[in-house]
Amino acid sequence: MHIAQLKNFTRAAAQMNISQPAISLQIKALEEELNITLFERNDKKVVLSEAGRLLFPIAMQMIRQYNKIKAGIDDLREVKAGHLMLGAVPVAGECLMPALIGGFREQYPAITVSLQIGGSVQVSRWIKERDVESVIVGYPVKADGIECRPWLTDQMTVITPPWHPLRGEEVPLAALTNESIVVREVGSGGRQVLEQQLLKHNITLDQFTSVLELGSAQAVINAVRLGLGIGVVSRWAAGELIEKGVLGEITVQGLNFSYEFYLAWNQNKESIAAKAFRTFITDEEMIRRLLRTKN
């Protein structure tokens, strides 16, 4: 390109910081490979041949495209651009991730983010099958190439309709078996914690008056508000409604309804954007700032 623009091998070589014989050899090799003459040479200047004039705009377009690709790669290296695919269980995806993704995009506005929400079993499958780059789940994901670490502690609580007679009371676990109960689906982290805590007291869900199983914390909350039973949900999901008096809360003697959210990611093929997001959401100060009103 420099030769065509400067019409001189020596000046083009100087601008490219290579020797004049080297650039002449490169042009000769290219002409032999294409089996055409690209330049017409005389004592005063070098000009494009007819074939050269035909190829010149195509070559310029190729160079512009190359520079655009290179700039895009450089932007990715500096986490200036990219697309991030995430997965999360409902409580994390609906109550925590919007604030965290918003804070992340303030720092990296050119990175677009897609968040898929599903149960722990489904979200675990997404990361194992590489459908997403990082996930938040309710229990550890075990698979080759997947790294999984504890992320945040979720504290669950027993909720009631606002008019329930046990609202605000501290009661023994046995007193709850006289109630209908609304719970999460089998396989969810919250359901596992609930059943484990009940078993420690030799109680199963079958001993409650009735059991209604729903697929998300929000569905459980809605059912409790309608008076379909008491429920056990994350304080991340119910805390604000409890404070407003829309839901009641019961303290149960001897129960520890806490469990960990886990952050899992593809250890071998983690993108630059995914690594930046992982670093962001594991910053304790950042989490406190963005989630300070959540729990």
TrEMBL record:
One Pfam family, please name it. Answer: HTH_1
Q: Which GO terms describe its molecular function?
A: DNA-binding transcription factor activity; transcription cis-regulatory region binding
Q: Which parts of the chain are coiled coil?
A: none
Gene3D superfamilies in the cross-refs: 3.40.190.290, Winged helix-like DNA-binding domain superfamily/Winged helix DNA-binding domain
Q: Which InterPro entries match?
A: LysR_HTH_N, LysR_subst-bd, WH-like_DNA-bd_sf, WH_DNA-bd_sf
Keyword Transcription set for record: yes
Going by the UniProt record, its keywords in alphabetical order are:
DNA-binding, Transcription, Transcription regulation
Annotated HTH lysR-type domain ranges read 1-49
Fetch the PROSITE patterns from UniProt. HTH_LYSR (PS50931)
User: What PANTHER family does this protein map onto?
Assistant: HTH-TYPE TRANSCRIPTIONAL REGULATOR, HTH-TYPE TRANSCRIPTIONAL REGULATOR CYSL
The family line of this record is: Belongs to the LysR transcriptional regulatory family.
Q: Tell me what this protein is called.
A: DNA-binding transcriptional LysR family regulator
Naturally occurring in which organism (per UniProt): Desulfallas thermosapovorans DSM 6562
The opening ranks of the lineage are: Bacteria, Bacillati, Bacillota, Clostridia, Eubacteriales
